[in-house]
Amino acid sequence: MLACLTDYLSLCRVTAAIGYLFLLLFSFFITVYTACFNGSCQVLDSCSQATDCGPGLYCGNCPALGKSQPFCTRGQAIVPTSIVGGLPFNKYSWLMTHNSFSIVDAPSLQGVQRLTFYNQEDTVTNQLMNGVRGLMLDMYDFNGDIWLCHSFRGQCFNFTAFQPAINTLREVETFLSQNPSEIVTIVIEDYVHTPKGLSNLFLNAGLDKYWFPVSKMPKKGEDWPTVNEMVQANHRLLVFTSVASKEAEEGIAYQWKYIIENEAGDPGVKPGSCPNRKESRPLNSKSASLFLMNYFPSYPVETEACKEHSAPLADMISTCFKAAGSMMPNFLAVNFYMRSDGGGVFYDLDSMNGQRLCGCNTIAACQAGAPFGSCKNITMPSSSPMTNTAGGFSGSVQFSKSASTIYYPNQFAIGFFSIPWMLFLL
């Protein structure tokens, strides 16, 4: 009788174990079945590959903030004029890329190993398609032409050269021709000494037909024409140079006559401080109606950018807003613009445009034609992504081929270029 009871209890234990195992398997399959995939994942949802994330997102991570598991991250800006249009150009905030041409994995056209800093990870065409509307380009006389070069001492070398400037300008021309309601701004760090070099360059690139004339630019801090007026006149390309004499010589606007600007490099990312660049008028002068906010460290490192584009960026925007006498930046210039802990520069731009255009905490809450402060109810993602051990960091399908893993060029350059005169590379 005791033996029978023992056998019965053993059978019960086996049956219970099988039942428990079945429940675990059922729970697993339910979890897998309900997990997002194939483009259905939203911001901060876990992902295992780029195709898991929805439109405008990519599968990334942020180890610098302890977020090593992959999750969906913003990769595109909301173009503010698509929601609130018809206002003066200077009433909007736009995303600008610092050294837009200095792209990780860009092939060397000089047959030598390039030795310089890198600041971006995708093509200028892709930057524009992702909502970037401002480009910082360093132009030099080189090899009998004008080149984009990330160099120093006003001279381009074969190991700091990227490509002829006309190649990038033709990308801009293609974008403008295919997007007839978009406006692009180019800020040139100018080392071109060839007479009429820049004006001929833009003419040869086919960009002269989009040129916003200097004569129509406000000189005393007044409002710019409305974006609608600029589009109707086809004045959709603003070009600024760092050389004052070229305004009279070539009709290219002198940057600091129309733009106030905070200090670039490490002074521009120091918490609680937003000093003006020495070439610029004081930030609170009100004598210029455009404000370019530089936000990038002196030595760019891809893996740190997601951390830089989190809470510190929002804090610095607030600091610079106050330093400029409650003037919101019109351009936010950053490195590695797609790197973030979820929303990054895109959320901050949404917030800037929302506050200034409709009195809402994000541009996505604005309603065209509604009274100021009338906002849609928008649910924002939580601050921490779900965790998932599946998959690895896939990078973005929009990054260059190895941007998710290549950190060596900048790390090597930091050591080599730590000499003070190399700060000209900014």
Strand and helix layout:
Blueprint: H1 2-34, E1 57-62, E2 67-74, E3 94-97, H2 124-129, E4 132-142, E5 145-149, E6 161-164, H3 165-178, E7 184-191, H4 197-204, H5 227-232, E8 237-241, H6 246-250, E9 253-254, H7 255-258, E10 259-261, E11 290-294, H8 302-308, H9 311-323, E12 331-334, H10 344-357, H11 408-416
Parallel strand pairs: 3-4, 3-12, 4-7, 7-8, 8-9, 10-11, 11-12
Antiparallel strand pairs: 1-2, 4-5, 5-6
Number of DSSP E strands: 12
Q: State the helicity in percent bands.
A: 25-40%
CATH topology of the largest domain: TIM Barrel
CATH class categorisation of the largest domain: Alpha Beta
Number of helices: 11
End-to-end gap:
89 Å
Order of helices and strands: HEEEHEEEHEHHEHEHEEHHEHH
Q: What does the largest sheet look like?
A: 10 strands, mixed
Q: What is the gyration radius calculated from CA atoms? A: 25 Å
- Strand fraction equals 15-25%
Question: What is the general shape?
Answer: globular
Structural class designation: alpha/beta
Quote the average pLDDT.
85
- The count of domains is 2
Indicate the CATH architecture of the largest domain.
Alpha-Beta Barrel
User: Runs with pLDDT <50, length 5+?
Assistant: 1-9, 23-34, 382-409, 411-424
Can you identify the CATH superfamily of the largest domain?
A: Phosphatidylinositol (PI) phosphodiesterase
Organism: Gossypium barbadense (Sea Island cotton)
Transmembrane segments: 12-33
Protein name: Phosphatidylinositol-specific phospholipase C X domain-containing protein
GO molecular function, one term: phosphoric diester hydrolase activity
